[in-house]
């Protein structure tokens, strides 16, 4: 019984209640669902239209969404000192990521949605909770690259 309670004691000492952990996990999964695609194919307008539809980001048509291509460990590392550093209330990656930004072409905010793809290689800024990515904020082209 004591062995079972000891891990819970440490969780509460860190201020991480089971509810907090569950909320963080849900936010992290939502972040991955909206912004992560490890190995994209095409990265053109059709890619954006397909991914936005697949990820259910088209009702209404989301104006802008960025997909990050890379490993989840590298993305999670932004929340730690391993691959990130403080950037105001956010964390910014120390290394660039391959990304695809999908921008709605305009017109009706209802499907069918049409998107324009922009490919890039950029550092990214994200919000983190308990060392887990929870919100994509922006990407930057570094000068000299």
Please give a structural write-up.
The chain is globular. Strands 1, 2, 3, 4, 5 and 6 form a 6-stranded antiparallel sheet that branches. Strand 2 and strand 3 (90-93) form a beta hairpin. Mean pLDDT is 85; it is low at 1-21. With 145 residues, it is of the alpha+beta class. The longest helix has 18 residues, at 18-35. It is built from 4 helices and 6 strands, in the order H-H-H-E-H-E-E-E-E-E.
Features:
32% strand, six-stranded antiparallel sheet, globular, alpha+beta, disordered N terminus, 4 helices, single chain, 145 residues
Secondary-structure topology with pairs:
Elements: H1 2-13, H2 18-35, H3 45-54, E1 64-69, H4 72-76, E2 84-87, E3 90-93, E4 97-104, E5 115-129, E6 132-140
What's the short story on this structure?
The chain has 145 residues and is of the alpha+beta class.
Q: What profile does the largest beta sheet have?
A: 6 strands, antiparallel
Structural class: alpha+beta
Distance between the termini: 57 Å
Low-confidence residue ranges: 1-21
